[in-house]
Amino acid sequence: MARIPYLTSSTASETIAEPLSKLPSLHVFGLMAHAETVFRPWLRFSGALLNHLALDPVLRELAILRVGQLAARYEWDQHVPLALAVGATQQQIDALDRGDLDALEPLPRAVVDFVTGVVRDEVDDAIYSSVSAFLDDREVVELTLVAGHYLMVARMMTTLRIDPDPAAGADALLLG
């Protein structure tokens, strides 16, 4: 059971009720809405990460899935449909879910290894060199932002004991 009640458009303050009413009814939004001064900027930032990066969306979603796998299963459950919608294969998702990272092609493997290092605070030179051999500087920074952002959200979810939600689907989560 969650440690903090989820806000809804009917229980939130006036400033938060409007944006909250336009979002899927997911616990993550009801939880984050308690942070009134950062809720709208957080939505814009999250939307930018999901919609406006140079980083390939498949790599972004594999990164999010890896964070979810290591830190908060809620993220995994919500992002599998997004990963499939942007072109990740079921084989990639299954390999990641099984922990069979050797089944991934070199670029997705380098991304997953890098994200693993971000989560565990272990990005050594070999891991960095591997990912930077495929991605330019902008993409490496964006990948780090994605991993860091979803790790922050995962830490909030686990600390505040978010309850699971059914997957909302790709259309519901692609914030503008």
List the helices and strands and how they pair.
Blueprint: H1 14-21, H2 27-32, H3 36-51, H4 57-71, H5 73-86, H6 90-98, H7 106-120, H8 125-132, H9 137-159, H10 170-173
Helix pairs in contact: 4-5, 4-6, 4-7, 4-9, 7-8, 7-9
Strand content range: under 5%
Nearest-integer average pLDDT: 95
Please write the string of helix (H) and strand (E) elements.
HHHHHHHHHH
> Per the principal axes of the C-alpha atoms, what is the gross shape?
elongated
Number of strands: 0
Overall structural class, as computed from helix and strand content, comes to mainly alpha
What is the first-to-last residue Cα distance?
Answer: 30 Å
Enumerate the spans where pLDDT stays under 50 for 5 or more consecutive residues.
none
Count structural domains: 2
CATH topology of the largest domain: AhpD-like
Proper CATH architecture of the largest domain: Up-down Bundle
Give the proportion of residues in helices: 55-70%
GO molecular function: peroxiredoxin activity
Organism: Streptomyces spiroverticillatus
Pfam families: CMD
InterPro entries: AhpD-like (IPR029032), CMD-like (IPR003779)
